[in-house]
């Protein structure tokens, strides 16, 4: 006869195993011919908290809304494409979600590609090509992580035309937390546009051939660390803020305007800008290919920047 202590051990093992199975959730597959569902939204509607919607290779013409904690996972961003059925609505809309994941997917639209509203989650190894915005993120206290992704404007793909700065790869506002790592922003109007009280960290990423690489506005506060800012048509990084921004070990070269600008009349070709900068910029080890890449040159402490001609050669 089994002892009470042994029964308790077996019961504990059973409960732990059962809890893990519940936490893992089930997998629902979407595919044109072999999936359980032909449409992504149908799988989302059938999913429960903690489930994974696995998307098989194909082009999916639909707008989807996610209001539960699930994972959307494609086989590869080179094989899975979500293209908006209507540009009047976000192609992918996360609404009031506390823990989502979007991975290995390409999202393309002339409208808003991904709208993260009052939600926390992550975007991993995905390609986002939007119209007005690639990713719009808002919601006080929410956190969005974007890792190993590629963000562009649909209008900028395959051409070198000047793009309006109103087209933004990421637009975030409010008291949000934005974390970006190993992500490329290329051929957007503004790669990243941050305002209000956004707290941000952008690390080991690239801003290439945008009109403006990153615009930090208002009271947005955070760090740019180990990024490469090159070939942007106006400004690599434009600071128009009244808070603290830290720049460490970033590399600036071949930008048409300046690699790093304060929003001052003397730095802006448009004649806009103020006469006094109200923010604080600290950091060290930032590389520039020429003194013309940084404006105004007299503002920065000696250890903040190093002039190293020939960067990018």
UniProtKB/TrEMBL annotation:
This is Right handed beta helix domain-containing protein. It comes from the Bacteria. Residues 166-263 form the Right handed beta helix domain. SMART domains: PbH1 (SM00710). Transmembrane segments: none annotated. It holds the Pfam family Beta_helix. InterPro entries: Beta_helix, PbH1, Pectin_lyas_fold, Pectin_lyase_fold/virulence. It comes from Mesotoga infera.
């Amino acid at each position: 006869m089994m002892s009470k202590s042994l029964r308790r051990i077996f019961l504990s093992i059973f409960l732990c195993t059962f809890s893990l199975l519940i936490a893992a959730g089930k997998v629902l597959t979407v595919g044109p011919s072999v999936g359980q569902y032909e449409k992504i939204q149908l799988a989302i509607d059938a999913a429960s908290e903690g489930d994974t919607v696995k998307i098989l290779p194909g082009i999916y013409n639909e707008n989807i809304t996610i209001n539960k904690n699930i994972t959307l996972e494609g086989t590869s961003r080179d094989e899975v494409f979500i293209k908006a059925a209507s540009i009047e609505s976000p192609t992918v809309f996360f609404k009031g979600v506390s823990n989502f994941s979007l991975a290995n997917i390409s999202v393309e639209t002339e409208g808003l590609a991904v709208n993260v509203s009052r939600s926390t989650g992550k975007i991993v190894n995905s390609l986002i090509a939007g119209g007005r915005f690639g990713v719009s993120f808002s919601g006080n206290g929410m956190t969005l992580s974007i890792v190993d992704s590629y963000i562009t404007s649909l209008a900028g793909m395959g051409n070198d035309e000047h793009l309006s700065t109103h087209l933004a790869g990421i637009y975030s506002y409010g008291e949000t937390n934005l974390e970006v790592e190993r992500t490329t922003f290329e051929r957007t109007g503004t790669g990243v546009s941050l305002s209000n009280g956004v707290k941000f960290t952008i690390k080991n990423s690239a801003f290439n051939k945008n009109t403006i690489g990153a615009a930090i506005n208002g009271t947005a506060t955070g760090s740019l660390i180990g990024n490469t800012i090159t070939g942007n048509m106006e400004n690599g990084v434009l600071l128009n803020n009244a808070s603290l921004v830290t720049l460490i070990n970033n590399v600036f070269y071949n930008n048409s305007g300046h690699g790093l600008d304060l929003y001052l009349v003397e730095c802006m070709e448009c004649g806009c800008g103020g006469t006094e900068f109200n923010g604080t910029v600290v950091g060290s080890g930032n590389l520039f290919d020429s003194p013309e890449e940084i404006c105004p040159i007299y503002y920065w402490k000696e250890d903040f920047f190093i002039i190293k001609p020939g960067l990018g050669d």
